[in-house]
Amino acid sequence: MLEVFYMSGASIFLMFSLVPGKDVLEFGAGHGVLGLALAPNCASVTLIDVAPKMVAQAKEKIAAKGLEKTVKAYCVLVV
How far apart are CA 66 and CA 50, in angstroms? Predict the structure, then answer.
């Protein structure tokens, strides 16, 4: 079952209690701040952004934290 959450600043804190053991897909992930914060409690995290430089930064952070097995980042052109 796909659960969709639209995030606002206040609801980000609620999200931390909703993700344990779940797969997270973040659109507009930028350099991955939220996804990487959620990663330790998730089964997997997929980060999607349209900016190649932001995705490159996310991949650097993923590698630096040793999360390559559970966190993936992709640059996807949306038309």
Answer: 24
- The answer, yes or no, to whether residue 13 has pLDDT greater than 70, is no
Beta bridge partners of 48: 27, 74
Q: Using CA atoms, how far apart are residues 13 and 1, in angstroms rounded to an integer?
A: 22
pLDDT in tens, 38-68: 888 889 999 999 999 999 999 999 999 999 9
pTM for this prediction: 0.77
φ/ψ region of 77 (left if φ > 0, alpha if ψ in -120 to 50, else beta) reads beta
